[in-house]
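Dear support,

I submitted the protein below through the web form. The confirmation email said the job was done, but the results page showed an empty box. After a refresh the structure appeared. I'm attaching both so you can tell me whether what I see now is the final result or a partial one.
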Amino acid sequence: MSRLDELSRDQLIDVALKQRDIIVKQEQAINGLTERVGTLEAELETLRSQMGGGGGAPEWVKPNRKERREQERSERKKRKKSFTRRRETPTETVKHAVETCPDCGRSLTGGWLHHVRQVIEIPQTPVRIIEHQVFARRCGVCGRVHIPKLDLSKDVLGRHRVGVRLMSLIAKLHIECRVPLETIRNSLETLYSLRLSKGELSEILHTVAKRGEGECSKLLADVRGSPVAHADETGWREDGLNGYIWSFSTPKTRYFVYNRSRAGDIPKEVLGEEFGGVLVCDFYYAYNVLLTRRQRCWAHFLRDLQKLKDDHPDDAEVAKWVDQVVGVYRRAKRFRSNKLEERIANKVVFEEEALGLALPYVKTDMPQHVLAERIERFLPELFVFVENPLVPSSNNAAERSVRPSVIARKISGGTRSAKGSATKMTLMSLFGTWKLRGLNTLEVCRQMLINSQQIITAQPA
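What the results page shows now:
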């Protein structure tokens, strides 16, 4: 086509007329298509209303993948915090850069940070052996000899050669982490080239326990003064002979004691005659000698009810009775009131319901008679949690308290002497309480050793 500036006037008029005809035809085509689109949209709306109703696709039509992703993204619950791996604060930095161009050999300088990779590692360092050399000096005027007095109360206990931090670490590994002494000895030698005998490790534990007796006495006082306490016992072996670990705990305190006996004198001696709180315990008879209110553990009782139901799967009457007893307990758990009078009244109501279910089977040979007799015997101690909201209905706190000792028993088998058992109970009480309170057990143990050393040092000879 020729350039427009090269055309004559008549030729330009002819081009303009042709363009006008083309525009007219295109406008007509556009108008026709617009009418067609309107007709199709009306037909589409009609089909939608006939097939699924509303303006969207029918319910049986699955959205495409893109729509599903957008829907999941919009419905996804927002997290309170990100769970991506966080970047640690570096203690040292190593920079990597190419010094010369591998293509032309030119020296390279400057640049920008491209990416970062962190590597976490522990140092392989030998143990620090600090030798304190004490020099004696004679005064040239008066002739007296002067020797400095060492104050190592913040570093070491008495004549021990092991520092308080290492002592705390050994106690933490053995009690909280349940690591055997032989494994601790091998680990210290591997990590720090430190060689300690098992006998020295045992003496370290005895020393830590001895310095923690004062703190342990405070824990016992906390348990005795608590309005609610939990009690439980589990097996333990001392020098190959069977005994028992007794656990007494509160929501913030744990206290352990070992005894060969499982009689009622043990909880009576530990809690004392003046204990006035509510004791949460299982149905073991040893707790009956305590002259205090008791809440029997419903977790144990529910397990026994379920076992009764499992042992008689074809007995519809047993299943119905179990469900009725469990229903009374669940209604009692759901009950809430801020008024003491209402709580006491409802406690009586639940006791009457439970007793009404138990009496028909008490003196019979029916499968329910054993648990029915238990309800009748312990009725005043089954619904104390209804009257006192501070009292839990189960003894799960005590079960969690003795769990570490059960694991330790499976690992080590027990202790070898009465001194070892006493040390074990003291350290279990201390570390169990510190962990329960969310404290740094290693640092708290170190501070305890330092404070006890300063107190002993300050005492007059």
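Response: this is the final, complete result; the empty box was a page-load delay. The longest strand covers residues 228-238.
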